[in-house]
Amino acid sequence: MVISEIPRTGNYLLMATTGAETERIFEFEHDGFEFIEQAQDIEAYVDKMLGSALSRVMIEVSGGSRSW
Length: 68
Hints:
There is one protein chain. The chain is of the alpha+beta class. The chain has one domain (2-63). 32% of the residues lie in helices and 31% in strands. Strands 1-2-3-4 form a four-stranded antiparallel β-sheet. Strand 1 and strand 2 form a beta hairpin.
């Protein structure tokens, strides 16, 4: 099942709905026609993406902060 297109890539985020890989999240990479596993399920994928975004924000914020 297609969850979404990944912006500015032409790739798609997919969730397997049948078979041994049911509920696993994959990125379909259109150039090489590859399915790259991203997470065990949608919850793990969201956690992974939020963790990455939060890490970037924390790095940006910490670069401009001072210890008193």
